[in-house]
Write a structure and sequence with these properties.
alpha/beta, Rossmann fold
Length: 269
């Protein structure tokens, strides 16, 4: 089955997307380090069970850069409406997880089931000293325009993780993420910040009543592990799953377990 590609018009812009498969719609939302390409394996495998849709956020991949105030979660709401999708299952990783949380709070009728992978969380303040020190170095590299060094440090923080050595991580994974970071550089370094969602996300997590699975790599940052636990605790009935030997992008490191976990959760009665 071939992949369908296209652009969906939303408000004053358009978003690139790829689609494959038939069945219930499954929307895969990418990380802030990546674009639709991070889901290539999931598109191949999960399209046997679902209609898989993988969009690029504004400023990522083939979607145009923002030229006006925007929020990704509202973009995704209009995207769902444009494609006339019903009872959408959503998998969101990192930035995509943050977007999915905000979307289901603001538009609960648009979402059927929710899988949050290493989710970001608006309003959460990072506490780990080592992570904050790395972020300070990163800001200096960005200010100095050192793109290659920025990409390398982002990989060390998010793909390798602060507890592992780089040579323990697949070179294919590192190469793919590095390519996506450099291709989406201005968005990755937050040149196009979103507007505030307009509500306190953390205090409204208990309003999420769709079945929810929170997935996290056991080698992810300590603050990400804390966020995943907080989200799982606050969302009524949410389940939490740690994926071994994976950092912030577990779908790229342990695709077999990741894919089966998605299938099991979305097809259970």
């Amino acid at each position: 089955m071939q992949i369908k590609t296209g652009f969906a018009k939303i408000q004053n812009t358009k978003l690139y997307f790829e689609m494959k498969g038939t069945g219930k719609p499954l929307l895969l939302l990418h990380s802030g380090l990546a674009d639709h390409r991070m889901w290539a394996e999931q598109c191949r495998k999960l399209s046997r069970y679902f209609q898989v849709i993988i969009p690029d956020f504004r400023g990522y991949g083939k979607s145009p850069a923002p030229s006006e105030p925007f929020s990704h979660f509202e973009d995704m709401f209009y995207f769902i409406q444009n494609l006339k999708l019903k009872n959408v299952n959503i998998v969101g990783c990192s930035l995509g997880g943050k977007v999915a949380i905000e979307l289901v709070i603001a538009h609960p009728e648009a979402v059927n089931r929710l899988i949050l992978v290493s989710p970001g969380l608006n309003g959460y303040e990072y506490q780990d000293v080592e992570t904050l020190e790395k972020d300070a170095i990163l800001e200096e590299l960005i200010a100095d325009g050192k793109r290659q060094e920025v990409a390398d440090l982002l990989i060390d923080i998010w793909v390798v993780g602060l507890k592992r050595k780089r040579d323990t991580v697949s070179l294919d994974v590192i190469s793919l993420v590095r390519e996506m970071i450099l291709d989406n550089y201005y968005s990755v370094v937050d040149k196009y910040p979103e507007t505030s969602p307009g509500f306190n996300v953390i205090s409204r997590l208990n309003e999420i009543h769709v079945p929810t699975l929170v997935m996290i790599g056991d080698e992810d940052l300590s603050d990400m592990l804390a966020i995943s636990q907080l989200v799982a605790d606050r969302i009524p009935g949410a389940k939490r799953l740690e994926i071994n030997n994976a950092a912030h992008l577990p779908n790229l490191e342990n695709g077999t377990l990741f894919n089966q976990s998605v299938i099991d959760f979305l097809t259970q009665v």
